Amino acid sequence: MSQPTGRHAARQGRVVRRLAAGVAVGTVVAVLVTLVVVRGGAAPTAGGAPVVEPTPEPVAQAPRPALAATAPRTGSVAPESPQRTVLPSGTVVPVVAVTTTPDGKLDVPSDVDVAGWWRGGSRIGDPFGSVLVSAHVDSERKGLGPYAELLGVRRGQTVVLTSDTLRQEYVVSSLRLLAKGPLSAHPWVYSPTGAHRLVMVTCAGPFDPSRGGYQNLAVVTATAVGEPTPRSE
Predict the structure, then answer these.
(1) What parts of the sequence cross the membrane (predicted)?
(2) Domain assignment of residue 149, yes or no
(3) Cβ proximity of 55 and 177 under 8 Å
């Protein structure tokens, strides 16, 4: 992804410096993260081969009677891919499914007003795992986009994901800064295991053109509130 240049770059540099002073505005760029879709029980990594959990030695057991088929979980829904994000300000951002590029980077939509959901992660209605969503937040043509507000989110604010027929509400629980780069040391960002959660990843200052631009990643984590409900709009 190209970085802002000239007057645009200078303006973005001033934005980043204001963020460093505590002003709640920031920028999101493409997430550079190697994601491995884990199959067959392997724990995910963001680079290299997946880490395989050791298989325990078998333990001899007495024969057990056959069990009846398990009934469906009460209140369960068929999971659906997110189609839009409603940010704490009420701004609605369309969401499309994305994969990774051949070099392992998340293929974020080029349109600054559209977010990308990593199709290797969880969906609305999945009981576990991370729903990973990201977007570019500025462009030379449009300037700052709607995801600029993510660096100013506060704990307790609400984010909503909707799909074709479902609505899931989340409450922001944390905003963390990570050094920009592969996320292999932070698998919780994209892992399909653990509690169901929404994870939005953005870039954060400082902005240093000589070192490739933004030097940090801001990771917003939000906890699901109850079960998904039918979408009414």
Answers:
(1) 20-38
(2) yes
(3) no
* Among 2-16, 94-108, 183-197, the range of highest mean pLDDT: 183-197
Query: How many separate domains does the chain show?
Result: 1
Per the model's pLDDT, the better-predicted residue between 215 and 162 turns out to be: 162
Whether residue 19 is contained in a domain is answered as yes
Question: Using CA atoms in the order 222, 226, 230, 231, what is the torsion angle rounded to 10 degrees?
Answer: -20
Domain containing residue 160: CATH number? 2.40.260.10
Q: Which residues contact 142 (CB under 8 A, 6 or more apart)?
A: 112, 113
| pTM given for the model | 0.67
Q: Is residue 108 part of a domain?
A: yes
Burial class (CB in 10 A: 0-12, 13-18, 19+), 4: buried
Q: Is residue 201 part of a domain?
A: yes
Could you report the per-residue pLDDT of 115-155, keeping only the tens digit for each? 999 999 999 999 999 999 998 777 778 888 888 899 899 99
Tally of CB atoms within 10 A around 93: 17
pLDDT (tens digit, 9 = 90+) per residue, 210-227?
988 778 888 899 999 999
